[in-house]
Amino acid sequence: MAAVAQDDLLSQLPGIPVASIKTAAELEVAAEASRPLVLRGLIEHWPSLAAGRKSPSALNDYFKRMDRGIPAPMVEAPASARGRLGYSADMREFTFSKRQRGISETLDRIERQTDRPNAPIIAIQMLPLASHLPDFVQQNPMPLLSGIGPLLWLGGRVRTQIHHDRDHNLACVIAGRRRFVLFPPEQVANLYIGPIENPPPLSIVDIEAPDFERFPLFERALASAQTAELGPGDALLMPRHWWHHVTSRDPYNAMINYWWGTHAQGLENPYDCFLTALLAIKGLPSAERIYWQAMFNAYVFQTESSAVEHIPPELRGALGTIHSGIRAALKQKLKASYLKSP
Question: What is the pLDDT of residues 204-222, one digit of tens each?
Fold first, then answer.
């Protein structure tokens, strides 16, 4: 079996649970529990949602009235990409380019392309509203995430390849419909993710027509996938590290998202630790890698619960609870070690 049309199959995947979250504390509990949730009607009070429901022109005008003339990040892809934002065939480049352009200029270009056959894809992506359109932040508050700056994503029929975020993500739709397909973090080995040196790392599988002969493990990933169809006013909580594919279902789409929960930087940043492990452990002989895998399982991931139970709590040191004193001592030791590194 080669490429298979998946649109119908994707619609049959289990739905992401719908929940009602009223407080920031409830949102944080759900995020930390790594539970994706659909929040219907979360932003019904937003004036931007009312504008989006009128027409693309009305929402564009709403944004243009706030434009302060600061260049904005936008992406453009040729019509041949069919809206798919991913890698080129050799994975050395992407199917899209990134530029800085004026917000009003880009909105006008997007509106002119709406419903035009064989038009290139133009989209505003990851626009920081607090700096570029601060009036939006004042007029469209998000009480569940006080102090977190929103980002704007607006454009045509875009299909963003499977990727993940290192932070929790609350995505709120203000125009058009979007389909999200989510995969648990542990499915990474079945998703055929591209090189991390060319961020963001994306899956090379076309989720809407997967080639199971070329990507046989992707069937396992689909077996654990969940999906959600969001309309204007709806929101989706995606806890950090959940892999997701996003399809903009209408000729004009707009979404606001919030990223939060960033880990500590430097020595305590998990991603930096991962890179260090690639450098220090991946190339070791097999027997040594088995040793370090066992050490990580026992003392970091604690899959062996009895690994330290025989040690009195006051003598467990870094193998026990990491309190402030132990944390400071570990950081000092690691800093000294890095200073010796060639």
Answer: 999 989 999 999 999 999 9
